[in-house]
Amino acid sequence: MSVTTRVLFAASEVYPLVKTGGLGDVGYSLPHALYRAGADVRVVLPAYRTVLAQVENIRILGWIDVRGAKRTHSVRILEVHHAEFEFPLWLVDCQVLFDRPGNPYLQPDGQDWIDNAERFTVFARAITELARDVLGINWRADVVHANDWQTGLVPALLKEQPHSPKCIFTIHNMAYGGHFSMVDFNRLALPRHWWTHEGVEFYGGFSMLKAGIVYADEVTTVSPTYAREICTPEFGYGLHGVLQVARHKLHGILNGIDEEVWDPATDVYLSAHYSANRRQPGKALNKQALLNRFGMDTDDTAMQAPLLGMVSRLVEQKGLDLVLAALPHLLSHTDARFIIIGNGESKYESGLRDFAVEYPDRIGVFIGYDESLAHLVEAGADMFLMPSRFEPCGLNQMYSLRYGTPPVVYRTGGLADTVIDANSEHQLQGIANGFVFGEFDAATLIDTIERAIACYAQPRLWQALLRTGMKQTFSWEHSAQSYLALYRATSNNRER
Ligand code: ADP
Ligand code: GLC
Q1: Whose CA is nearest to atom 22 of ligand 1?
Q2: Which ligand does the CA of 376 lie closest to?
Q3: Which end of the chain is least crowded, N or C, by CB within 10 Å?
């Protein structure tokens, strides 16, 4: 007789259907790792317009009446099978809320959708209903795994029902709290007894992230260091006290990476492949392709000069202010080249564009989102720049390690847990894989990049560094086992 844990995995982004950052990657690869480890998994996400455009073989599982803001929506639940998924996906289809162009959270002008409170309350209510098999399809979750504020109400709603499944809530980023007003709270008819300091109330409004933390049976975040950091005022975004109270149920489980999608030996986005044991000519061909792509020189001088790559949401978190402050010195005192791709806040977009216009042979900038270019930057750059002021886990530094592109990072969150500085001691021990700095300022970033450039000039040291990173494994297997152990500890598995 087998014991299978039924996991309803809920996220607002799931690669390759919809992704704005690392949550999308995790929304794809963690459920797969759980499935391969024996769990019976369903992934549920909103039926955004972009998602509907990519799926075929849609089956209607049924309709659920879901309370929204002063209205009730007849929500359609769709089951789809997709070539990239080894299990069915469930889509919460509510046209008036999700059938819109562009980003899951933002209007085309970059402002939040004004009805986000309603959109993600309806999503959460639908998930709660699905978890208890309200459609009668004979699939009842043992565990609901909710992610980030967009599903923060799920644990709270589950607690309202008798015999509901246990709920794990994962925090991917404390900077996004899902904060809404008392007016929204009332319009959504959320339970009045939640409105307390110990409940969802947050500075006169309410926080969906807080709801997740308070009401989940277990709370996880995506690296051990970030789990400690968020219990302090500096990283807790006003919720450090709540997290300290919840400490007994808070766990830091490091994300893995999808080692099939991110493998320089087989990467579908690259035309030249390479591996830890055979890095050339593949690595150099990618550098050439990347420089070409930005119309930069590819003569011997350019090919020998260090190329720093960056792929990032252009937001405060990612340390763009430091990068902009460090560039003038690095351009005048070193021969480094830079290729930076990303989008986000306009001050960073225009700051980077200005540099690219002034130094076209030294800086290439692409403002926008381009999955294939992200892979080429990981493969073609010599070093990866990721000076985030905080980083819950960070996937890009793990991709860059795998692609033989040592990362330059600030010592925080998941960066501190994955990157080991190339100081002489670590080099001697053979464990160095990148460059880590401990003071968050432009001067220290400059010193660290100059240190990386000096190391790059010493081929034996540099190759050793590359090899160490490329041979590391960041697979999901280990973390998936940690999640499964948590699920089992919290849920009462049924024998089937
Ligand atoms: P975060 O989730 O905070 O953005 P992560 O490092 O965890 O940071 O994940 C970022 C993910 O988003 C990576 O897969 C990265 O390649 C991708 N990404 C970010 N910006 C872009 C972009 N402009 N184009 C393509 N991919 C991007
Ligand atoms: C968030 C974090 C990032 C993390 C990702 C996936 O977007 O900013 O550090 O890697 O979620 O967990």
Answers
A1: 369
A2: 1
A3: N
